[in-house]
């Protein structure tokens, strides 16, 4: 017997959920130069696929419509100096801003005032 667990967020009238399955990241136009990747969600675990690092994370809910990705492995320090300065002001987190069927719109924030990037998580499988 297989038991499915979904990781959900509540937005006004929508019940946004990360259902188990594969997703692709589609960045908003102003962030289109960011490297695209796909990921797979299994319960509260997220695994990058089709990316340079293919890391594994735990999805940790931190609020009504926000979450952080906590890596299972120790990260190697591959951040640029600018990225190190940004992340020193707080831990990055994702905020789900809207959802429609298999699409979750997100903003990634470094802190309450600084947006790193935004786009959509689109379920593909």
Number of strands: 10
Radius of gyration: 14 Å
Strand line-up in the sheet with most strands: 3-4-5-6-7-8-9-10
The total count of helices amounts to: 1
| Class based on secondary structure composition and strand pairing | mainly beta
Can you give the mean pLDDT?
81
Could you describe the largest sheet, including whether it forms a barrel?
Answer: 8 strands, antiparallel, barrel
Oligomer category: single chain
Structure overview:
This protein is mostly beta strands and 125 residues long. The chain has one helix at residues 81-87; strands at 7-11, 14-18, 21-27, 38-42, 45-49, 56-63, 66-71, 93-100, 103-109, 115-123. An 8-stranded antiparallel β-barrel has the order 3-4-5-6-7-8-9-10. It has a two-stranded antiparallel ribbon with strand order 1-2. A hairpin with a 5-residue loop joins β9 (103-109) and β10. The radius of gyration is 14 Å and the shape is globular.
Quick recap:
The protein is 6% helix and 52% strand.
Give keywords.
125 residues; mainly beta; two-stranded antiparallel sheet; disordered N terminus
Secondary structure elements and pairings:
Layout: E1 7-11, E2 14-18, E3 21-27, E4 38-42, E5 45-49, E6 56-63, E7 66-71, H1 81-87, E8 93-100, E9 103-109, E10 115-123
Antiparallel strand pairs: 1-2, 3-4, 3-10, 4-5, 5-6, 6-7, 7-8, 8-9, 9-10
């Amino acid at each position: 017997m297989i038991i499915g667990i979904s990781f959900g967020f509540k937005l006004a009238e929508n019940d946004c959920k990360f259902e188990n399955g594969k997703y692709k990241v589609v960045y908003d136009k102003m962030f289109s130069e960011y490297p695209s990747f796909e990921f797979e969600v299994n319960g509260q675990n997220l695994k990058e696929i089709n990316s340079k690092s293919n890391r594994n994370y735990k999805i940790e809910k931190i609020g009504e419509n926000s979450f952080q990705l906590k890596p299972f492995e120790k990260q190697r320090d591959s951040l640029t100096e600018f990225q190190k300065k940004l992340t020193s002001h707080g831990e990055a987190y994702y905020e789900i801003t809207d959802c429609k069927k298999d699409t979750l719109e997100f903003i990634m924030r470094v802190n309450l005032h600084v947006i790193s990037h935004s786009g959509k998580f689109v379920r593909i499988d």
